[in-house]
């Protein structure tokens, strides 16, 4: 049974660098204040705040690298089975004084293989574990097949890799499509993984929409250089395509690749940004 990888810490980049701009801005203000003012008291205060802020910013970065290390070292557990007891609950909180309306926080969870998981949706400063922060969020429903690779940390179960598959019995009618897709996918995945751009081009349907322009086959080099990075090509070598209605989907962060069937066989036809990548 093919499963879709919806999150994998091994292929997730740290994206919170922007917050380091805060201590840098404080240092810049301190430098300006020291230059323009006779007193250095406020400059010293700003430098202290900058140092404290920098230390706070290091915590999620440390957490990110710690979880990557846990995954690489294999210090994880795996729960596999059918999703049950899936739930989503919204908690309403009053905003600060003077604000209008309310703030909503969404909590959700599910059980797989007798192991229960729960998290505050979208809240994970380091991005090092799955909290369903994509837009739209992944629909985790009862009956889906799932494989959850997780790390127990204190009383929390950190989801480091989440794979989902169709509900039991849901893929029977797609058996013929899976069989017909397999040869073309094997050629495509092998070519991508080994850097065989010519074969990937031959298995791509044109015109191909890329950066808001429809490119013909003679512009394939732009597609190859823009989409098939070393990390994506390495992912293609081990990715598991997932059926989606009349096509197949492959998740290789930071992109989602779509394959449609035509008279010439299955071809790579379009891509989107991966909400979990």
Order of helices and strands: EHHEEEEEEHHEEHHEEEE
What portion of residues is helical? 25-40%
Dominant shape: globular
Number of strands: 13
The number of helical elements comes to 6
Description:
The chain is an alpha+beta fold and 277 residues long. The protein is 32% helix and 32% strand. It contains 6 helices and 13 strands. Strands 1-7-6-2 form a 4-stranded antiparallel β-sheet, with helices on one face. It has a 4-stranded antiparallel β-sheet with strand order 10-11-12-13. A 3-stranded antiparallel β-sheet has the order 3-4-5, with no helix packed on it. Strand 8 and strand 9 form a beta hairpin. The longest helix is centred in the N-terminal third of the chain and has 33 residues.
Observed structural traits:
single chain; 277 residues; alpha+beta; 4-stranded antiparallel beta sheet; 6 helices
Give the helix/strand layout.
Layout: E1 4-8, H1 21-36, H2 41-73, E2 77-82, E3 84-94, E4 102-112, E5 115-120, E6 145-153, E7 156-165, H3 175-194, H4 197-202, E8 208-210, E9 213-215, H5 220-227, H6 230-236, E10 242-244, E11 247-252, E12 255-262, E13 265-273
Antiparallel strand pairs: 1-7, 2-6, 3-4, 4-5, 6-7, 8-9, 10-11, 11-12, 12-13
């Amino acid at each position: 049974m093919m499963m879709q990888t919806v999150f994998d810490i091994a292929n997730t980049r740290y994206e919170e660098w922007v917050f380091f701009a805060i201590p840098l801005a404080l240092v810049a203000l301190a430098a300006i204040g020291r230059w323009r003012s006779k007193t250095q008291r406020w400059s010293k205060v700003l430098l202290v705040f900058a140092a404290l802020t920098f230390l706070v910013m290091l915590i999620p970065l440390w957490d990110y690298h710690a979880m990557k290390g846990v995954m690489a070292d294999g210090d994880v557990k795996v729960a596999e089975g059918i999703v049950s007891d899936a739930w989503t609950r919204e908690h309403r909180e009053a905003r600060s004084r003077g604000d209008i309306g309310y703030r909503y926080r969404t909590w959700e969870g599910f059980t797989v293989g007798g192991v229960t998981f729960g998290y505050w949706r979208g809240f994970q400063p380091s991005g090092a574990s799955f909290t369903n922060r994509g837009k739209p969020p992944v629909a985790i429903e009862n009956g889906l097949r799932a494989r959850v690779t997780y790390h127990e940390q204190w009383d929390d179960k950190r989801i480091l890799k989440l794979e989902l598959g169709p509900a039991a019995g849901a893929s029977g009618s797609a058996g013929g499509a899976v069989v017909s897709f397999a040869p073309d996918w094997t050629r495509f995945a092998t070519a991508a993984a080994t850097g065989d751009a010519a074969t990937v081009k031959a298995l791509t349907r044109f015109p191909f929409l890329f950066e808001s322009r429809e490119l013909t086959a003679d512009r394939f080099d732009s597609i190859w250089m823009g989409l098939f990075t070393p990390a994506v090509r390495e992912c293609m070598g081990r990715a598991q395509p997932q059926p989606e209605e009349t096509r197949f989907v492959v998740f290789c962060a930071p992109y989602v690749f779509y394959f449609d069937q035509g008279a010439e066989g299955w071809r790579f036809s379009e891509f989107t940004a991966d909400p979990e990548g």
